[in-house]
């Protein structure tokens, strides 16, 4: 399973701000572990590994899934790093999170798995579903589905909805208008280092 079940703040203290993983903020500044910050300079491999781990934990994918995304990104036209980010950003669970319908990506995945979300009037229960331009995302007509998402919408995870998405909060309808652009990716990382990490495998 791809779901991370361990302490999330520990990951954020090690890797930095991961908006998709948790909304909590740690009071501790030092990295986790008995010895905290090590003064020695990290190796090139350690830097690449850290960037890769940021991507993994933020989007909630396991190693095999991420490796498969990299292989797909290499086959598509364009910069491999940017295409990889676009593939991850266009996942259904991330799209729901970016629309503000869920506070984190794990919460969005749970909404999808429990059948609260419809895409183009069809129930989709797989969080890794790839959204395409023109997709209409709606909420199950049941009262508990709507009340749950309305509660989440009152406290969105991120301040702004990306330019490629559109939300009608009164009707609880989201629309995908295009492919996400690089500047709208909420994660601070260098995607080229991730491509370099996998090119050495």
UniProtKB/TrEMBL annotation:
GO molecular function: rRNA binding; structural constituent of ribosome
Residues of the Small ribosomal subunit protein uS4 N-terminal domain: 3-89
GO CC, one annotated term: small ribosomal subunit
Region: Disordered, residue numbers: 22-42
Keyword Ribosomal protein: yes
Residue intervals of the RNA-binding S4 domain: 90-154
Localisation: Plastid, Chloroplast
Keyword line: Chloroplast, Plastid, Ribonucleoprotein, Ribosomal protein, RNA-binding, rRNA-binding
Pfam family, one: S4
Assembly and interaction partners: Part of the 30S ribosomal subunit. Contacts protein S5. The interaction surface between S4 and S5 is involved in control of translational fidelity.
Family according to the record: Belongs to the universal ribosomal protein uS4 family.
Role description: With S5 and S12 plays an important role in translational accuracy.
UniProt-listed HAMAP family: Ribosomal_uS4_B
Protein name, per record: Small ribosomal subunit protein uS4c
Organism: Palmaria palmata
Annotated gene: rps4
């Amino acid at each position: 399973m791809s779901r991370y079940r361990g302490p999330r703040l520990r990951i954020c203290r090690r890797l930095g701000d991961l908006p998709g993983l948790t909304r909590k903020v740690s009071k501790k500044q030092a990295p986790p572990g008995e010895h905290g910050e090590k003064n020695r300079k990290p190796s090139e491999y350690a830097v690449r590994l850290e960037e890769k781990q940021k991507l993994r934990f933020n989007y909630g994918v396991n190693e095999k899934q991420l490796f498969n995304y990299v292989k797909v990104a290499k086959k598509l036209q364009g910069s491999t790093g940017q295409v990889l980010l676009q593939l991850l950003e266009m996942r259904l669970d991330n799209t729901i999170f970016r629309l503000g319908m869920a506070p984190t990506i794990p919460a969005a995945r749970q909404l999808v798995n429990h059948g609260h979300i419809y895409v183009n009037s069809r129930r989709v229960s797989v969080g890794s579903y790839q959204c395409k331009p023109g997709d209409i995302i709606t909420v199950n007509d049941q009262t508990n589905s709507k009340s749950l998402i309305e509660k989440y919408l009152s406290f969105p995870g991120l301040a702004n909805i990306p330019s490629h998405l559109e939300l009608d909060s009164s009707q609880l309808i989201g629309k995908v208008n295009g492919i996400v652009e690089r500047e709208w990716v909420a994660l601070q990382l260098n995607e080229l280092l991730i491509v370099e990490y996998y090119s050495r495998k």
